[in-house]
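Hello K.,

You asked for the raw outputs rather than the summary table, so here they are, unedited. I folded two proteins back to back in the same session to keep the settings identical. This is the first:
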Amino acid sequence: MKNLNRNPLKKLEIILEGEHQEFATDLLDLAGVTGYTIVNNLSGKGRHGFHEGHLMFNEEAVLIMIIVAVPEELVDPILEGFAPFFNKHTGVVFISDIQVTRLVKFKN
């Protein structure tokens, strides 16, 4: 097996209501993100209390998390795109430093 190089990227974990998934994925696509992972039916506790992660009526009534790994230069444009959204809607973006071994998977 070849040696796997470690390459620095930023991981964004975007948590928002499922009804806004299309807005979020469209924004990521426009920013040039090559891929993302969507986790549905989140449970957790925040400022507004506990949120149950089961489906009540449809998939739009739950919280989702979109996980994306991007080069540092994409972080600010993505956050600028989400700023007006988060002024009106609930949600959060966690940003962390990560390393990936197959950088080709994260570039156009």
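The second followed immediately with the same parameters:
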Amino acid sequence: MDREISSGWLMFIGFRAAEDRILAALAEAGYADVTRAQARLLAAIDLDGTRLVVLADRARIPKQTALALVNGLEAAGYVERVPDPSDGRARLIRPAARSRGVLPVAIAEEARIEADWQAVLGARRMRALRRALWDLALSVDPHLQDNSHSDASGAPET
């Protein structure tokens, strides 16, 4: 390669590797029918439900694409549509029975990924990486400002 790889691309490589591992863990646990795009959308759903337009915004995809993904997830039993208690005209997308098994699998794999990365970097560099990534995330995503719960390192709890 003629030029240095950008920091953004390096972060994407790490994200992609983590996502691959999580999807493989889900498939091994019996959730092989979840596509990469559906998994990304599932991860954006609040436990008490999220409006479709918010999901589309979080996933940075058109509303029509989010709708198609939600339709597939609903058909497979991963999500359900329920009335929004704050607006009778609106509907919320919330996790359904089948998706309740997905979250523990994904969280367990995330913990293994963090442990593996810490084994490569060491505890001090891992804490520094998490702090730096958290600072970057806060600077580019205003939605995180309201949802930040941090541990002693200043990074969000995992």
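Helices lie at 7-28, 36-43, 52-59, 63-75, 102-121, 123-140, 143-147.

Happy to rerun anything if the numbers look odd on your end.

Regards,
P.
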